[in-house]
Amino acid sequence: MGNEVPENHVQAWFFCILLAEIPALAKRNGYWPGRGMRKLYLYASLGALLLGFTACSPRLTGTWNVQRFEVIKQGESGLSINNVGTMEFRRNGKGEKNIQYSILGITKFDNLPFDWVQHGNSITISGNNTDFAKTWIVIRDKRRYQQWKSTDGANTVQVIELSR
Fold first, then answer.
1. Cβ-proximal residues to 68 (8 Å cutoff; 6+ apart), any chain
2. Which of 37, 51, 54, 163 is the most exposed place for a label (fewest CB within 10 A)?
3. Contact 120, 126 (CB under 8 A)
């Protein structure tokens, strides 16, 4: 599974290309502006290019601490576990988990690799034998903090909080 470029990133690149073509179109049609306008086009083009490059680098890549993992069942008290390990998300759509937690005296280890893909405000993690392999909805998306929620389709909601 590779990462797909979200639509807003495609629009940013289209804007960069359009902005870069304006001086060529103006010159071709005999409307080549004076020196001050050329500088404006240059700076605007460089700014748009930088915006295009930063728009394509996902905020999720890197190593995250799993600050909290919570399981909430309707009509029951929820179960919350803090500081259960780390998850590393690489740019190539791969990642590794280093998770360890105990629930009701049963210790779970999850040190398996996974694949991931982000589509807008959802992240799909694929892998074998893991509680994390599912599609998660991104609730909070900050540079140093993420909160995701998912459901099993019945009465259980899972919440993950990640921090750097």
1. 80, 81, 82, 159, 160, 161
2. 54
3. no
What is the signed CA dihedral for 141, 90, 126, 56, rounded to 10 degrees?
A: 50
The three-point CA angle 92-94-97 to 5° equals 145
Domain 62-163 -> CATH class: mainly beta
User: Tokens at residue 75, please?
Assistant: 């009509």
Domain ranges of the chain: 7-55, 62-163
Interacting residues of 19 by C-beta distance below 8 A, sequence separation 6+: 41, 44, 45, 48
Q: What is the phi/psi pair of residue 33, to 5°?
A: -75, 170
Cα(36)–Cα(14) distance, integer angstroms: 25
Q: Are 156 and 72 in contact (CB under 8 A)?
A: yes
Query: Which residues touch 40 (CB under 8 Å, ≥6 apart)?
Result: none
pTM tops 0.85: no
pLDDT string in tens for the chain (164-residue length): 444 545 555 555 666 566 666 666 666 666 666 666 666 666 666 666 665 554 444 578 999 999 999 988 888 888 889 999 999 999 999 999 999 988 778 888 889 899 999 998 999 999 887 778 999 999 999 989 999 999 988 889 999 999 99
Tally of CA atoms within 13 A in the half-sphere of 111 that contains its CB: 3
